[in-house]
Amino acid sequence: MNVFLGKAVLDFFIAFGIVLGGAMLGGIGAVLSLQQPTQTMLDVAGRIKIWALAAAVGGTIDPMRVIESNMLGGNLSPAIKQILYLVFAFLGAHMGSELVKWVCSRG
Questions:
Q1: Where does residue 62 rank: exposed (0-12), middle (13-18), buried (19+ CB within 10 A)?
Q2: Domain count along the chain
Q3: pLDDT 10s per residue in the chain (107 long)?
Q4: Buried (b) or exposed (e) across 69-87, using 16+ Cβ within 10 A?
Q5: 45 Cβ partners below 8 Å, 6+ apart?
Q6: Residue 19: domain span
Q7: Membrane-spanning regions, if any (predicted)?
Q8: I want to staple 100 with a disulfide (CB 3.0 to 4.6 A). Which of 45, 49, 55, 73 is the partner?
Q9: Computed from CA positions of residues 45, 99, 16, 76, in that sequence, does the dihedral angle turn out positive or negative?
């Protein structure tokens, strides 16, 4: 259980960091190219969310194959773990984009 929670937390923060870092660097790029940084940050945070989810769980289609093969084989425990990893990564990406929205609305 300890290994599962460690990987779940790591997936959460990887996705969170990808969204937050991508939006912040996009904002810096917008300033350098004389565009509105807040709008660019919001756009980047929305567009990069799905890629953050994919990168956090391994960057390939393997988690989907694990879910499929284990569900069809009747072994639900590994499939449920992979689904929970995806949920944690999604929560991290979503919280990162919500933080960007919050920061941009407060500015």
A1: exposed
A2: 1
A3: 789 999 999 999 999 999 999 999 999 999 999 999 999 999 999 999 999 988 888 866 677 777 777 777 777 677 788 889 999 999 999 999 999 999 998 75
A4: ebeeeeeeeebebbeebbe
A5: 19, 22, 23, 96, 97, 100, 101
A6: 3-106
A7: 12-32, 83-104
A8: 45
A9: negative
Q: What is the model's pTM?
A: 0.85
Long-range contacts: 32-39, Cβ < 8 Å, 24+?
A: 38/104, 38/107
Three-state secondary-structure class, residue 107:
coil
Close Cβ partners of 75 (under 8 Å, ≥ 6 residues apart): none
CA distances, 39 to each of 16, 21, 34, 52 (Å): 19, 15, 12, 19
